[in-house]
Amino acid sequence: xxxxxxxHWDEVYxxxxxxxxxxxxxxxxPSLRALDELQLPVxxxxxxxxxxxxxxxxxLVERGWSDLTVLDIAASGLDVAKARLRDEAIKVVWVVADxxxxxxxxxYDVWHDRAVFHFLTEAEQRLAYHQALEAGTVPGSAVIIxxxxxxxxxxxSGLPVRRYDAAALAAEFSPAFILERDWREEHATPGGGxxxxxxxxxxxx
Length: 205
Ligand SMILES: C[S@@+](CC[C@H](N)C(=O)[O-])C[C@H]1O[C@@H](n2cnc3c(N)ncnc32)[C@H](O)[C@@H]1O
Fold this sequence. Notes:
The strands form 2 sheets. A 7-stranded mixed β-sheet has the order 3-2-1-4-5-9-8. Strands 6-7 form a two-stranded antiparallel ribbon. The chain has one domain (about 1-15, about 25-205): Vaccinia Virus protein VP39 (Rossmann fold). It is of the alpha/beta class. The protein has helices spanning about 1-15, 30-40, 55-60, 75-85, 125-135, 165-175; strands at about 45-50, 65-70, 90-95, 110-115, 140-150, 155, 160, 175-190, 195-205. The chain binds S-adenosylmethionine.
C-alpha cells in the first residue's frame, strides 16, 4: 500500500508540470500570511509536510529562514523544488518519507501541511500522522494546516479525501492542540476551477 502511494505521487511529479497540478499556487499566500501573523524569528524551525514542489520553501529561504525541512513521499516532487532552488537547495533538509510511517528525531516550531492530511481517510492513518506530529512538536509549536472544506472536491489527484470544516479539524487535533485561527480560501486552480480549502492555525498546549 505504501509503495502504491509512493508510486502514485512519484508518477504525478514525473509526468505533470509543477504549475499544471490542481494544487499549484504561484505564491503560497495563505501560508505566508499565517506565518507573518505568528511573528516568528527567521531562526524558527519549520517543516513543510507533504511539501512536494511547493514554492513555500523558496519564499522562506529568500526571507532568511535558516532551519527548513521539506518532507514528501515523492522524491520526484522534492527534486522539482531542489532544481528550482539550485545552489540554495543545500539550505534545506529534504526528507523522502510517508508521514504516517515517519518518526521525527527532532522537533519543529512550525508544522505546515497544505493538502496532505486530507488524504488520510482511515482512522489508523490519522493516528499514525498524529504520532509523527506529536513527536515532531513541543508545547508552543504551531501547526498550519489546510484541507479541502466540506464543499471542496471529494477527490484530489484521483485519490479520495476527507473534507473538514474548522470545528472538525480542531476536534481532530484536540486535546493536544488548540485552535487559534481559521479561515476559508477559494483556491483558483491552473485549469480555471475553484476549490474550497479550510485553513487552521493551532498551537500545541
Ligand atoms: C495535493 S499535494 C500538495 C503539495 C504541497 N503541499 C502544496 O501545497 O503544493 C499533496 C502532497 O502530499 C504528498 N503526500 C501524499 N501523501 C503523503 C504521505 N503519506 N506522506 C508524505 N507526503 C505525502 C504528495 O506527494 C504531494 O506532494
